[in-house]
Amino acid sequence: MKISHATSAEELVEAVEELDPEMVVAFEEVTLPALGGSFEATKAFARYVRVFADEVFSEVDPRGQLRESGYREALLYRCMSSPMSGWVASFGFGRGVAASVAACGREMRTELRPIAPPGGIAPELVRADFGEFVRRAMTSLRLDEEPLTVIGRELGLNKRELGGVFGVSRQAVGDWMDKGIPSQRMSDVSTALKVVQVMSRKLKPGRLPLVAHRPAPAFGGKTLLEALHDDPQDALSKVDEAFDWSGTA
């Protein structure tokens, strides 16, 4: 079940569980502590919303048109209130928050019929300070983004594909985002981030995901993704040699 194919609340919940079951579990673990005042949990919540919102956008907006138009930031800020939605009241913190994010993402596409949230509010939230939670969440959202989130978003990769760049599994990528990048892989991730930042400046908005999958003479016939997998530092050197990417874009 795809988020864009869902026609009911139940189907949308099924779709988010299929899209990223690990993120559903993560929302279940951090949302209530975040609402209870934990700043660490709130930072984790904001980080998870970033990651999951990008996954939703990749599915409902594969060409990146919404992202280019600035809708992503609007979606992120809107999703900060997702714990107070009827989705959470009906489906719990994990599936409910994920479904709320997905529902908001769908609404960004005018050709997709909106799916109305269920009514009600979770009983655990009666005593929560919503205003304080949203303030903390907004503050966390404005902090620097996690490098893997930036790399995945700019290259248009899901977690499995992002893991392939670094030769690890989707689950490992999730662990890196959640628990931190292992020290022995920090150099590779940092270098890949530099490549992505340079390429993003060289290309028109939305073109990098297309270029990244095309074989390029500068990389000996490899794609950018393959070059990053084999030797991130060499890929950065090639990019720094002022390769004419405009010809491939």
Which spans of ≥5 residues are poorly predicted at pLDDT below 50?
245-249
| Major sheet description | none
Fraction in helix:
55-70%
Radius of gyration: 19 Å
Strand residue percentage: under 5%
Write down how many β-strands occur, each being a DSSP E stretch of 2 or more residues. Answer: 0
Basic shape: globular
SS-derived structural category: mainly alpha
What would the average pLDDT be, to the nearest integer? Answer: 86
Oligomerization state of this entry?
single chain
Count of DSSP H/I helices: 14
Supply database-style keywords.
single chain; 249 residues; mainly alpha; 2 domains
Outline the structure in words:
By secondary structure, this protein is mostly helical. The chain contains 14 helices and no strands. It folds into 2 domains: 3-141, no CATH class; 147-247, no CATH class.
